[in-house]
Structures are given as C-alpha cells and as structure tokens.
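Example record

The entry below shows one chain as it appears in the dataset: sequence first, then structure tokens.
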Amino acid sequence: PAALSPYLCLGGGLYLLDYPSHDAAYDAGRYEDGARWGFNIGGGIQFGALGMLGVFLEGVYHRVETAPVRLEFVDIELGAFGLF
C-alpha cells in the first residue's frame, strides 16, 4: 500500500537577479542586477505510487534581500521522483 508522507524544507541560496532594462524602477537606479543571498522555507507531501516511483506536491516561500524592498515569492510544484 502507498502512503502519504509530509515533509518540511529549509534552505538558503544565491539568487541571480537580472532586471529588464526597460523597467522604470531599474532605470531610476532603485534595483541592481547581480547575485543576492536569500532563504526559503516550505513543505509538501509525497506519495509513493509504483514501488520506486512517486509524486509530490510542495509549496516554498522564498525571500531575497534586495534594496530598497525585498523580493518575496512562493512557488508551488507538482512533480515526480524515482529512487534508482
């Protein structure tokens, strides 16, 4: 029988920012391209479907320290995994 397994995730990373040059805020010098440190936290569920194959659904909140305002977003993913 297949089982649902909840999980949490937490991490940090280097986010590469590249604002389009036609953006008014960028042109006014409010944002800078380049690498910025950030973190993420989230969770999800995974479901073992066929032996070593399974599916997952997760949501992750990301926060990147940029000036003058920080960049925040949430991504939601539905995917498959295999254990080989």
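Notes for this example: Helices lie at 24-27. The chain has a mean pLDDT of 83.
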